[in-house]
Design brief:
Strand content: under 5%
Radius of gyration: 51 Å
Mean pLDDT: 91
Number of strands: 0
Shape: rod-shaped
Number of helices: 2
Order of helices and strands: HH
Amino acid sequence: MANDEMIKAENDDMQNKFRAEKENYDNLLREKMELVERLARLNVELADDTKVVEEQDKLLLELRTQIEAELTEVTTLEESCAAARKIKKTEDERNRHVQQQFTALEAKKEFIETNYDYTSAPADMNLEIFK
């Protein structure tokens, strides 16, 4: 009887262990199925992302070529602006010099006009006098 009780206890213990291992196996099998499904979804997402990345790479390449073309245009415009600035500077200096000469001549003319005696010989007046 004690043997039978012991055998029953061991059988119950073995059944409990078997049930626990079976539950563990079922859990692992369910987790494996979930992981396989997740892997399949991730592979699909990866394929979609790869397509998007390829399209973006093409777009980036086009944009880089466009940027390079615009940069060359900008450098040529900067060079022409630098040349125009040089010309503007020389022209401004020349204009300033001409303006100074004009102001000096204008002052000379005013001085002559204010100091010239128009009552004495206006017939002898000549343009060469003012030069």
